[in-house]
């Protein structure tokens, strides 16, 4: 395992930026160990929801965790608004960094992560294989 600390800049799209950082590191497998920061726009799919919820405003990233595979990511985050209300779910493309996002990635160069259809769940689920 190799650790990769990142600071994303204002205007960066969180999910694609993390996927790009893993690709640029020449890796096919990573986990997000920790993430904090702020968003000016959040794109979250709530538990069991079909549609993505898009929120514009000032949000603090309280937690960020997940896996980054060679063909897609599975990220969860919790956010708070200016009244301290907390909301969480799947982080999608369109989570735009407001001031910063500080993220710690664990790169796994000896492994390959892929998302493949799973008959039991009906979703593309994580498949883990040695490199």
Total helices: the number is: 1
Q: Name the average pLDDT.
A: 97
Instruction: Tell me the distance between the termini.
Output: 13 Å
Provide the domain count: 1
Supply the CATH class. Alpha Beta
Low-confidence segments, given as residue ranges, are none
Using the CA coordinates, give the radius of gyration.
15 Å
Pfam families: PCC
GO molecular function: DNA binding
Organism: Roseateles agri
Protein name: PPC domain-containing DNA-binding protein
Short structural description:
Helix content is 8%, strand content 63%.
Layout of helices and strands, plus pairs?
Layout: E1 2-8, H1 14-24, E2 29-45, E3 53-69, E4 72-80, E5 86-91, E6 96-107, E7 111-117, E8 124-130
Antiparallel strand pairs: 1-6, 2-3, 2-5, 2-6, 3-4, 4-5, 7-8
Note down, in words, how this protein is organized.
One of its GO terms (molecular function) is DNA binding. This protein is mainly β and 131 residues long. It has a single domain (2-116, 124-130), classed as 60s Ribosomal Protein L30, Chain: A, CATH 3.30.1330. The chain is 8% helix and 63% strand. It has one helix and eight strands. Strands 1, 2, 3, 4, 5 and 6 form a six-stranded antiparallel beta sheet that branches. A hairpin with a 5-residue loop joins strand 4 (72-80) and strand 5 (86-91). The chain is globular, with a radius of gyration of 15 Å. The two termini are 13 Å apart. The model has no long low-confidence stretch (mean pLDDT 97).
